[in-house]
Specification:
The protein is about 80% helix and about 0% strand. The protein is mainly alpha-helical and about 190 residues long.
Length: about 190
C-alpha cells in the first residue's frame, strides 16, 4: 500500500483543525485599539497553535514522501498522531477561556508532548516496516531533535505550575527548533 491516501487524509484532518481554531476566535467588541489589544493574548496563542499544526503538517508531508509503503501499524500510528493533534484546538481554547492559568497551560504542554510522542512512534513504525536502511531511517537517524523536543515538553509541563511564562517560552523554543521543515529528509530525498 502506498502513502498517498494516508497523506491526503492527514492533510484534510489538519486543515479541519486549523479551521476549528480560527472559528473559535472571538471578534473584539469595539473598533479601537483598546478592543483589539484585549485580543492579543488569544491571537498569540492561536498563532503558536497554528505554527505547531503547520510544523506537523510540513514534517508529516516530508516523512511520507520518504515512505515507500505503509501497513496497518503505520495507519494506526498515524491515527494516534491525529488524535493528539485534534486536541490542539481544545487546549488552545481552554487556555484562552481561563486567562492562561497554570493547569490549562500544563494541559497544552501535555497535548504537545503526546503529539511529539505520537509523531516519534509513527516515524519508528515506518522505519520498522521499511527497514534500517530506508530513506527515512538514514535521514532521521536517532532523531535527537525529536527526543530533545519531548524532553523540553516534559520540563515545561511541571514548570507551568511554577511560572507559566517559562512554560510558554519553552513551547515557543520548541516551535522555533522545528519551524523550518526537516532538512534531513529533504536532503535524503534530493540525494535519491
Amino acid at each position: 500500500m502506498t502513502s498517498q491516501r494516508l497523506e491526503a487524509f492527514s492533510d484534510g484532518v489538519i486543515a479541519i483543525l486549523i479551521t476549528i481554531m480560527v472559528l473559535e476566535l472571538k471578534v473584539p467588541h469595539g473598533t479601537g485599539l483598546a478592543a483589539l489589544s484585549s485580543a492579543v493574548p488569544t491571537l498569540l496563542s492561536y498563532l503558536l497553535s497554528f505554527i505547531f499544526l503547520a510544523i506537523y503538517w510540513n514534517n508529516h508531508h516530508h516523512m511520507l514522501q520518504a515512505t515507500d509503503r505503509i501497513n496497518g501499524a503505520i495507519l494506526w500510528a498515524n491515527m494516534h498522531l491525529l488524535f493528539w493533534l485534534s486536541l490542539v484546538p481544545f487546549v488552545t481554547s481552554w487556555m484562552n477561556e481561563n486567562n492562561f492559568a497554570e493547569l490549562p497551560t500544563a494541559g497544552y504542554g501535555v497535548v504537545l508532548l503526546f503529539s511529539g510522542v505520537a509523531y516519534f512512534l509513527l516515524e519508528r513504525a515506518i522505519i520498522a516496516h521499511e527497514g534500517p536502511g530506508s530513506k527515512l531511517a538514514t535521514a532521521v537517524g536517532k532523531d535527537a531533535k525529536g527526543i530533545a523536543s519531548m524532553l523540553l515538553y516534559c520540563a515545561a509541563i511541571p514548570l507551568a505550575f511554577v511560572n507559566r511564562w517559562i512554560a510558554y517560552a519553552i513551547y515557543v523554543a520548541v516551535a522555533l527548533m522545528w519551524l523550518v521543515p526537516d532538512r534531513r529528509i529533504e536532503k535524503r530525498l534530493a540525494d535519491g
